[in-house]
Design goal:
Radius of gyration: 20 Å
CATH class of the largest domain: Alpha Beta
Shape: globular
CATH superfamily of the largest domain: Medium-chain alcohol dehydrogenases, catalytic domain
Structural class: alpha/beta
CATH topology of the largest domain: Quinone Oxidoreductase, Chain A, domain 1
Number of strands: 16
Helix content: 25-40%
Largest sheet: 7 strands, mixed
Number of helices: 9
């Protein structure tokens, strides 16, 4: 009997991309060298844009959505991977040019895979997902640029989101004084539980300010962009650094070169999609040692596959707190 898989597929419908549940078989999957039994995926902002049609994410159709997956190797033509290996895939243009994780089995390229550290279950690996792995890359960038937990505040914008939540937990665990910026007053206790010492309203960063402002942050992790990022840079202290990894508030940067040339501020771009394997492995190794699993559990919700479209709408509207794992095995007939 041919195995039937349930996938979230984006297809062209009357000239526009539209996502829906579709039935596929193994024969429909890409001819890559590793077959993974997918246990779970997750909902990221990019997933929300793709499923709602509010952002052009897929660059070819039809496309199986889902930018993350975690699971177990079922078959491998690569000497690097064996059946039973627990693996995670983040980025590599999944859901853009390569079929993604919203399906129970997927064929992927062996070079995309990273082993799931023993410290994590597959669900925890997806609770981390692209958001947490990106947050860890941002922390590593700040460390490499000399930002130390020496008393001055470190800012996290979009703090109640996926990247922000894990960034707050990581930085607090490493001894930094973390200030969390959010527009959701109801998340105050949540963010303090993750380790934030101060909460500021995101509105304080939304008004265009002077090119140089009062020095406040030793460093920052920004997932917002736009005017927010310009103000964060203008408020960063001498020899400080800002790691930028998102554009939820805009893709422009309406700022000045003054913080860079007068204060020596560094701006580090975080590429989580095509980062080399060595950097990925370092990030996951550090996550295994630096991320408090109790805090990870506090920010995580596990949802069945059937809820993925509602969750996509919610994340685009800024209504999801922390991380949401999708159990792709909880199919339409479960």
């Amino acid at each position: 009997m041919t195995e039937t898989l349930t996938a979230v597929m984006l297809e062209d419908v009357d000239g526009k991309p539209k996502a829906s549940f579709k039935s596929l078989t193994l024969a429909d999957l890409p001819d890559h060298d590793v077959l993974v039994d997918v246990a779970c995926s997750t909902v990221n902002y990019k997933d929300g844009l793709a499923l709602t049609g509010k952002g052009k994410i897929a660059r070819k159709l039809p496309m199986v959505c889902g930018v993350d997956l975690a699971g177990t190797v079922a078959e491998s033509r690569s000497p690097d991977w064996r059946p039973g290996d627990r693996v995670v895939v983040n980025g590599w243009n999944l859901s853009e040019t390569e079929w993604g994780g919203y399906i129970q089995k997927q064929r992927v390229k062996s070079e995309w895979l990273v082993r799931v550290p023993d410290a994590f279950t597959l669900a925890e690996a997806m609770a981390i997902g692209t958001a947490g792995y990106t947050a860890m890359l941002a922390v590593l960038a700040l460390e490499q640029l000399g930002v130390r937990p020496d008393g001055r505040e470190v800012l996290v914008t979009g703090a109640a989101g996926g990247v922000g939540s894990i960034a707050v937990a990581l930085l607090a665990g490493l001894g930094y004084r973390v200030t969390a910026s959010t527009g959701r007053a109801e998340t105050l206790d949540y963010l303090k539980g993750l380790g934030a010492t101060t909460i500021i309203d995101r509105g304080s960063l939304l008004e265009k300010g002077l090119p140089l402002q009062r020095e406040r942050w030793a460093g920052a992790i920004d997932s917002v962009g736009g005017v927010t990022l310009a103000n964060v840079i203008a408020q960063t202290a001498r020899q400080g650094a800002v790691a930028v990894c998102g554009l939820a508030g805009g893709a422009d940067l309406p700022g000045s070169v003054f913080p860079f040339i007068l204060r020596g501020v560094s701006l580090a771009g975080i590429d989580s999609v095509l980062a080399p394997r060595a950097k990925r492995e370092l990030a996951w190794a550090r996550l295994a040692t630096d991320l408090d699993r109790a805090k990870l559990d506090a920010m995580t919700t596990i949802a069945p596959f059937t809820q993925v479209f509602d969750l996509a709408e919610a994340i685009v509207k800024g209504q999801i707190r922390g991380r949401t794992v999708i159990d792709v095995r909880a199919t339409l007939t479960a």
